[in-house]
Write a structure and sequence with these properties.
Layout: H1 2-17, H2 19-23, E1 25-31, H3 48-51, E2 60-64, H4 72-77, H5 80-87, E3 93-97, H6 114-131, E4 135-139, H7 160-171, E5 175-176, H8 178-193, E6 198-201, E7 213-219, H9 221-237
Parallel strand pairs: 1-2, 1-3, 3-4, 4-5
Antiparallel strand pairs: 6-7
């Protein structure tokens, strides 16, 4: 009896004084393949959310629920949002980045028109996460690697980035303009240098890609790290309280 009581008291003290229980925070991430976790074995592709933990100290837990091929519509329809909403608690952060698949008019399972369904779904994520005391943060869609014949970056996202900013203003939610930041990054690196951000894989480098790969939407580990760093810069610029958990802050 006394021995059991001792262990109960000891466990309580551990929980009470552990850094995470007192100061920790959980970041939930919802979005598409550009943010999602990818297999590590024999695979060069990484999502920026997958590399996000390296920027934070030990008091941060990150749950990356982003998934390949998902839009705001399919993320809700498949019950993925419900599973995240169920977990949310007061003080948690929710990073929201969609757009790549919402814009696919030819795919009715994912298509969400920018000014109606897409906008409404973003507001749903914000309203419902706030009802749990969580802190939503919007992120505009990251750029694909597209250049015109003059070497100027070409946007493929249409009205979607503007709608994210519109929703941010309407709901008074911080917005990290990854669309603008990644455009600048691509411009600075140029047509050739920007290939390092994405998947330009020569044949034979990976067993899973015997013929190599050219993909200007999804990121290499280097690219995912660079994009994650842009989001971190946005956290600092927006003076989001989460910045106190960044390494070297």
């Amino acid at each position: 009896m006394i021995k059991n009581l001792f262990f109960i008291v000891l466990s309580f003290m551990f929980l009470s004084f552990s850094p995470f229980s007192k100061k920790g925070v959980t970041i939930y991430m919802i979005g598409d393949s550009t943010m999602a976790n990818k297999p590590l074995n024999d695979n060069p592709e990484r999502g920026w959310g997958q590399l996000f933990p390296q920027f934070f100290n030990e008091n941060v837990k990150i749950e990356n629920h982003a998934m390949n091929g998902r839009s705001t519509k399919s993320f809700i329809d498949e019950g993925r949002w419900d599973s995240v909403f169920f977990k949310l608690k007061k003080g948690d952060y929710l990073f929201i980045q969609f757009g790549h698949n919402d814009e696919k008019v030819d795919k009715p399972n994912v298509y969400a028109e920018a000014h109606t369904t897409y906008k409404d779904n973003l507001i749903k994520f914000i309203t419902e996460s706030r009802s749990k005391g969580a802190i939503p943060i919007l992120v505009t869609p990251v750029m694909r690697r597209r250049f015109d014949e003059k070497g100027v970056v070409v946007d493929t996202h249409g009205d979607y980035p503007a709608v994210v900013k519109e929703v941010a203003a309407l709901t008074k939610v911080p917005v990290i303009d990854l669309h603008e930041k990644s455009t600048k990054l691509l411009t600075d690196l140029g047509v050739e240098g920007s290939k390092l951000l994405f998947l330009h894989i020569a044949p034979g480098v990976y067993k899973s890609l015997p013929e190599g790969k050219k993909d200007d939407t999804h990121f290499s580990e280097f690219g995912a790290t660079k994009i994650g760093a842009l989001v971190v810069a946005g956290i600092k610029e927006q003076n989001i309280e989460l910045k106190k958990y960044l390494k070297n802050e």
